[in-house]
Amino acid sequence: MSGTTTSPKVGYGSTRSELHATGDRAADRRFRRRYPGITLALDTHDRFVDLLEQRVDLAIRIGDLEDSSLHRAHPGHSPLRLLASPAYLERRGTPQQVASLADHDLLGFNQLDHLNRWPLRDAHGEPLLITPTLSASSGSTLLSLALAGEGIVCLADYMTLQPRQRGELVEVLAAATERQTQRVSAVYYQQSALTRRARAFMDFLAERLPSSHLEA
Question: Which of 72, 94, 156, 173 is the 20 to 30 Å CA partner of 190?
């Protein structure tokens, strides 16, 4: 959300408020239909953005927050699961045990190693930290790679609900997967006034996400 616009109005005549948010691009169309007076500019990646430097008013953050200057609105937690496309599993076979992942293409992150810790246990009973065969900087890119049959990925439900419902991705090693969730939060700087357009977007996310993607 950019602070360059002067009008706080939402959906009034020709008044246009520009909203720059880092988060879920899938919500773009639904939000614009509800608030036609707001122009959304969505920036999706998995590096931490300096909200002030990048003039971002509201960001969707995954995991715990280390920046004490941020105020957090907490929509919920999203479970993690391993997924692959049916085409990939047909071509490479379905792993039946954790050790079998060594023979598969694993999709992971290239900037945030803690996101490559999957909800599985290795042979020593330790949390499994994978070395990706193919890595990317964003969860949305990894999702696209998984859908294209490039390997097995571990992502949170809020990103993968629709592909799973359509059968485009299926769960892998479900019995071995431990119950782990990622915290999903909408954040902004405590010293910044939350604009009406930002509040509208945050309320929209809080309304949409818990019922279909998140747990309290």
Answer: 156
